[in-house]
């Protein structure tokens, strides 16, 4: 996630607060989301954000919206900010194709890449159980899928490729093993490979590109489950783009961020094509990915994101971007990369931030439909700080960072503001006598 230490803009607080009071919809229950579903209309790409990767309410509200879109608007699949191999296993489970794993808990508990809590949590168990139940009895082409868009899983993707090729193509397996062996000296962490690439710029680039070429050439001959063929190609694409991403890490600047979001956007387009001409997708990612980067200071740094790419590559009326935010509470995060997850305090939002203004307009949950604010110069022309909490978080530094200068009505099509939120419920934390959260199955 990008760092933001930009000074707070001078804003017209009274005018912004007045506009929020005039146009915001009270959000007291699920039924109050009707204006959002009307705004979604016939869109076929709905992106649901989050201001942190560790907040219970972001998951449960998104789960409810997802359920409604699947049941009432015929959405075909969910795509998330997660690794392809892990999410593909969950996809097979919710579609009833996994005969070994009998529970969503078991499948999700195997999500062991840090930050584990992002997807290995009780909130996602509830969603997965609902998806499996929804899919039961449906024909294969009507089952709702669950896929990962991210680029981090270089080693896991190569292992998945080799497992697939052992069964289908021993000759191509030799190429996959050559690529895998190229990465072995650098261990399982991308940073080791990234550091080595400073001295030998190409390293394993040739091997992963050759692997992708071989798989793409032989795909028509793979007479197996058509979705497994898609997965094999996707894992090969992940290896190519992950290798590129880790090399870009050491260069600094926006390049590695753009490699990652371009990969996610291209994966999304491949999934839409795979699901057919009228496919509809629900995307779950952080606000920094789904909120249009052109409405933030990211654009000035040369960065773009999947939300911007979706808007520019698809018709605006086919894409709806929904942001989320809160004023205070608790959040699940780690103090540094790889650190133990812990429940942290989420302090009251910084003064003159969007979260502060939304709270000042009234300490109740709110739904904003951005079309209502068109023409209001105070909202449409001023960059105001908008909180963004990553998997690495230190509350004591809250006032010095964690805020992305944003024109909120241009960044999103709708925004869900939750005044006070709490941390989600990870599967991998095992306190004495751990109980399933009382919110299971999911609810708001």
Automatic annotation (TrEMBL):
Coiled coil: none annotated. InterPro entries: Emycin_Estase, Hydrolase/PRTase-associated, UCP036794_erythomycin. Gene3D superfamilies: Biosynthetic Protein domain, EreA-like (biosynthetic domain), EreA-like, domain 2. It holds the Pfam family Erythro_esteras. One of its GO terms (biological process) is response to antibiotic. This is Erythromycin esterase family protein.
């Amino acid at each position: 996630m990008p760092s933001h230490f930009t000074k707070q803009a001078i804003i017209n607080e009274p005018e912004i607060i007045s506009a929020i009071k005039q146009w915001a919809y009270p959000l007291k229950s699920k039924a109050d989301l009707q204006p959002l579903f009307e705004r979604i209309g016939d869109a076929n790409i709905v992106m649901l954000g989050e201001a942190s990767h560790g907040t219970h309410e972001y998951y449960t509200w998104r789960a409810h919206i997802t359920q409604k879109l699947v049941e009432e608007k015929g959405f075909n699949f969910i795509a998330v900010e997660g690794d392809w191999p892990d999410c593909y296993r969950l996809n097979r489970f919710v579609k009833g194709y996994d005969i070994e794993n009998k529970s969503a808990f078991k499948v999700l508990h195997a999500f062991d890449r840090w930050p584990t809590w992002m997807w290995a949590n009780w909130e996602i168990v509830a969603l997965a159980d609902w998806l499996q139940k929804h899919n039961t009895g449906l024909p294969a082409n009507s089952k709702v899928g669950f896929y990962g868009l991210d680029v981090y899983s270089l080693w896991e993707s190569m292992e998945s490729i080799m497992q697939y090729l052992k069964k289908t193509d021993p000759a191509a397996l030799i190429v996959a093993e050559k690529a895998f062996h190229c990465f072995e000296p650098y261990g399982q962490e991308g940073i080791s490979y990234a550091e080595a690439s400073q001295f030998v710029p190409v390293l394993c680039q040739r091997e992963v590109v050759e692997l992708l070429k071989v798989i793409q050439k032989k795909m028509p001959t793979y007479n197996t489950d058509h979705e497994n063929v898609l997965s094999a190609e996707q894992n090969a694409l992940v290896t190519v783009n992950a290798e590129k991403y880790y090399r870009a890490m050491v260069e600094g600047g926006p390049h590695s961020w753009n490699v990652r979001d371009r990969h996610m956007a291209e994966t999304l387009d491949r999934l839409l094509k795979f699901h057919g001409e009228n496919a509809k997708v629900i995307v779950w990612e952080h606000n920094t990915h789904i909120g249009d980067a052109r409405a933030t200071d990211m654009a000035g740094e040369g960065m773009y994101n999947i939300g911007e790419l979706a808007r520019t590559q698809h018709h605006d009326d086919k894409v709806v971007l929904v942001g989320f935010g809160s004023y205070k509470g608790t959040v699940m995060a780690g103090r540094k990369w790889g650190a133990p997850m812990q429940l942290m305090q989420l302090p009251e939002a910084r003064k003159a931030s969007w979260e502060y203004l939304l709270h000042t307009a009234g300490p109740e949950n709110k739904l904003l439909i951005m079309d209502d604010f068109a023409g209001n110069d105070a909202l449409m022309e001023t960059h105001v700080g908008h909180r963004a909490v990553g998997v690495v978080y230190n509350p004591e530094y809250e006032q010095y960072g964690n805020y992305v200068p944003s024109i909120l009505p241009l960044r999103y099509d709708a925004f869900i503001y939750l005044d006070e939120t709490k941390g989600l419920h990870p599967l991998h934390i095992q306190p004495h006598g751990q109980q399933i959260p009382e919110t299971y199955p999911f609810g708001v």
